[in-house]
Give the backbone structure.
Amino acid sequence: MNRQDTKGVLMIRTGQNFETVEGGCAGLTRVTVPVHGERLLAGWGLMGLSPTSAGVALLLGILGLGMTACGPRHLNVMYTPEQTLITIGYAADRSRSIFRADNEAQEYCERRDKTVVFLKQETVYQGQYDEDVTAATRAAGRVAGALGSSEAAEASKALSSPTDYKTTFEFLCQ
């Protein structure tokens, strides 16, 4: 069997005594790799590369894919018809919603080496239950959690959602 016959998927089987191991398909041809005793002969693997080179190529490919995820975070900032900028922050409580919208605006302007000029802010409660009931339940849950009842603390979060509060910031970068 020559090198052309051993291209394709490299399979490693140990502990079994076969005459041949079928290794998969390369294009439209079926690849069969000879076996010596109980071990597969280390032939040529991925795209005709040696097993070591194929391993290095695979590692570099995974590293390259991982590096693409390390870019800057996408910001939720849009232009208005008046050419101002707008960002929206959602959270289960009012202060965190404001913080998220502010953080988006600050980071957007920092990337352009400018400072934020806030024009307008609006925070709206859009939860399923009454705002006072939800706030009281969350406060009771925090107290229960501080006293050691994690079940009660978790149950209190059932009345709220991560989109209860919506804060809209209108701003400019200068």
Notes: Confidence is low (pLDDT under 50) at residues 5-46.
